[in-house]
C-alpha cells in the first residue's frame, strides 16, 4: 500500500550562527514523520536561488515567517495526498508553484526544506536508510572528508584572506581512519598554534582562526601539523583550499586586504596558486578566482587542471545551466554541490549527473550556517562522488555529519568502499 503525504508544516529554528532558518516536518498517512532543516551561506554566489527573509525588525531582518507561510499556504495544500516516492514530480510541482527562475516567490529555503523532507519521508516509508533510498544498492562509497581546519575570509575575524584551508586524508584506508587522521591533525595544529602564541578560537566552520602573518603561513603551519600528528603530507593527507575569491574581488582586482598582501590581477592570483601547488601538497583549489571571472578560471584550469582539482562553487552555484557552460568552456574540472544554492533535490541531482557525464569530480558541501540535520552525509554516500566538505573536527553541526558517516560505514560493513578521488593517478584528476 502506498503512503501519501498528509501534512507539511514548517518551523522557524536557529542555525549555527544564530540566524533563523526553516525546519520542515512532513507527515504521511501511515504515521511516518520526517523532518529536514535548511542551511545558509555567508559567502554566497550572486546567482544562488533566493533565500526568502522577512526583512522586518525581528532577527535583524533575517526572520523566515514569510517562507513558512508559503509552506503552509501554498506548498502544503498542493502536496496533500501525493506519493512521496515521486520526488522528481514533486520537485517539478514546487518549481511550478514558485514560477520564478530563482525561487524568489516561495523562497528556495521553503522549497528545499520540503524537497528534502519528502525524500526523507519516502526513505522511511520504504524502510530504507536515506543513502540507500537515494543511491540504490550501489551506494556504498564513503566520501573523503575535506576538513576545514583554518578559517579566514568571511568566516572569521582574523588576518587571513582565504576562507578555507582544509586537510584531506586521501591515504586513509577507511572513512573512520580518515576522520581520525584529520582530527589528530586538527589537535596537533591547536598545540602548534598555542606554542607560537596564536589564538585557538574557531571560525564558523570549526577551523581555527588565528591572526597569521600571511595566507601562505596557513599552508606552512598545516603541513607542520600533519607531520606532528605523524602523517606524511601529500601521501596520507593532502591540502585543499577554498579562497572564496569572490569575497575579496573588487573592481580594482583581488584585494588581499585582511593580510595586507596587496592587490592582484587574475593572472597574478593564478601565479600565486602555481607557486603554492609547487610548494605544498595541494590536491584541490575551489573558487581561486571570482564568480564572474570565467576566463580566469579557464586559464587556471588549463595551467593547473592536470595536477589539481579545480572546483567551481560560486561560479556554478550548483546550477545545471552554469555547469553546462563550464563544461563547454573547460572552466574547471569539478563542482561544489550545495543543495540550497539551487533549491531542490532533483535539480541538485541533475547537476551531479552533468558532472558524471563530463568526467568531472563533485564535492558534496555544507554551508557555513548549518543545523544538526545530517541529510548531507547520506546524500554524499548516495551520490558516490567520494568527497564531502563539512567543516572541521569541532562544532556539533559539522561533527554530526561526520558521525553519521561513521554510522553509515559501520552499517555497510564489508560492503563499504573508501577510495580517494585522486588515488588512482596522483598527478591527474581529470
Ligand atoms: P558559505 O561558504 O556557506 O558561507 O557560502 C562555504 C563555501 O564557500 O564553500
Ligand atoms: Zn566555496
TrEMBL record:
Catalytic activity: (2R)-2-phosphoglycerate = phosphoenolpyruvate + H2O
Protein known as: Enolase
Details of cofactor binding: Mg(2+) is required for catalysis and for stabilizing the dimer.
Domain Enolase N-terminal positions: 5-134
Pathway(s): Carbohydrate degradation; glycolysis; pyruvate from D-glyceraldehyde 3-phosphate: step 4/5
Cofactor(s) needed by this chain: Mg(2+)
Pfam families according to UniProt: Enolase_C, Enolase_N
Active site: 205 (proton donor), 338 (proton acceptor)
One GO CC annotation: extracellular region
InterPro entries in UniProt: Enolase, Enolase-like_C_sf, Enolase-like_N, Enolase_C, Enolase_CS, Enolase_N
Gene that encodes it: eno
Annotated binding of substrate, by residue: 155, 164, 286, 313, 365-368, 389
Listed GO MF terms: magnesium ion binding; phosphopyruvate hydratase activity
Organism annotation: Methylocystis rosea
Family stated for the protein in its record: Belongs to the enolase family.
Amino acid at each position: 500500500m502506498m503512503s501519501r503525504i498528509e501534512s507539511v508544516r514548517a518551523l522557524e529554528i536557529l542555525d549555527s550562527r544564530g540566524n533563523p532558518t526553516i525546519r520542515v516536518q512532513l507527515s504521511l498517512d501511515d504515521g511516518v514523520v520526517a523532518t529536514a532543516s535548511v542551511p545558509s551561506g555567508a559567502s554566497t554566489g550572486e546567482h544562488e536561488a533566493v533565500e526568502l527573509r522577512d526583512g522586518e525588525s525581528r532577527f535583524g531582518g533575517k526572520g523566515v515567517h514569510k517562507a513558512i507561510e508559503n509552506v503552509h499556504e501554498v506548498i502544503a495544500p498542493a502536496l496533500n495526498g501525493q506519493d512521496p516516492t515521486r520526488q522528481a514530480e514533486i520537485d517539478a510541482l514546487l518549481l511550478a508553484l514558485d514560477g520564478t527562475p530563482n525561487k524568489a516567490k516561495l523562497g528556495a529555503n521553503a522549497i528545499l526544506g520540503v524537497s528534502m523532507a519528502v525524500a526523507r519521508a519516502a526513505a522511511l516509508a520504504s524502510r530504507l536508510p536515506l543513502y540507500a533510498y537515494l543511491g540504490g544498492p550501489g551506494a556504498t562509497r564513503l566520501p573523503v572528508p575535506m576538513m576545514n581546519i583554518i578559517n579566514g575570509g568571511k568566516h572569521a575575524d582574523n588576518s587571513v584572506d582565504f576562507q578555507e584551508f582544509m586537510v584531506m586524508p586521501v591515504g586513509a584506508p577507511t572513512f573512520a581512519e580518515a576522520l581520525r587522521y584529520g582530527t589528530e591533525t586538527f589537535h596537533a595544529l591547536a598545540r602548534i598554534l598555542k606554542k607560537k602564541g596564536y589564538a585557538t578560537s574557531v571560525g564558523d566552520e570549526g577551523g581555527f582562526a588565528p591572526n597569521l602573518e600571511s595566507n601562505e603561513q596557513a599552508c606552512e603551519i598545516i603541513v607542520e601539523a600533519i607531520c606532528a600528528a605523524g602523517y606524511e603530507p601529500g601521501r596520507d593527507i593532502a591540502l585543499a583550499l577554498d579562497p572564496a575569491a569572490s569575497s575579496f574581488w573588487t573592481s580594482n582586482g583581488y584585494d588581499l586586504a585582511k593580510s595586507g598582501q596587496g592587490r592582484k590581477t587574475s593572472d597574478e592570483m593564478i601565479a600565486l596558486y602555481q607557486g603554492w601547488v609547487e610548494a605544498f601538497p595541494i590536491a584541490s583549489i575551489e573558487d581561486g578566482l571570482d564568480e564572474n571571472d570565467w576566463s580566469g578560471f579557464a586559464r587556471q584550469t588549463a595551467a593547473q587542471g592536470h595536477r589539481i582539482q579545480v572546483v567551481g562553487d560560486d561560479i556554478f552555484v550548483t546550477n545545471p545551466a552554469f555547469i553546462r557552460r563550464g563544461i563547454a568552456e573547460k572552466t574547471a574540472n569539478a563542482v561544489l554541490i550545495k543543495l540550497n544554492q539551487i533549491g531542490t533535490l532533483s535539480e541538485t541531482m541533475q547537476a551531479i549527473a552533468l558532472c558524471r557525464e563530463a568526467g568531472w569530480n563533485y564535492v558534496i558541501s555544507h554551508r557555513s550556517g548549518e543545523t544538526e540535520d545530517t541529510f548531507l552525509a547520506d546524500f554524499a554516500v548516495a551520490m558516490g562522488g567520494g568527497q564531502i566538505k563539512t567543516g572541521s573536527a569541532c562544532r556539533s553541526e559539522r561533527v554530526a555529519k561526520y558521525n553519521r558517516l561513521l554510522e553509515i560505514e559501520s552499517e555497510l560493513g564489508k560492503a563499504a568502499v573508501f577510495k580517494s578521488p585522486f588515488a588512482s593517478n596522483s598527478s591527474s584528476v581529470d
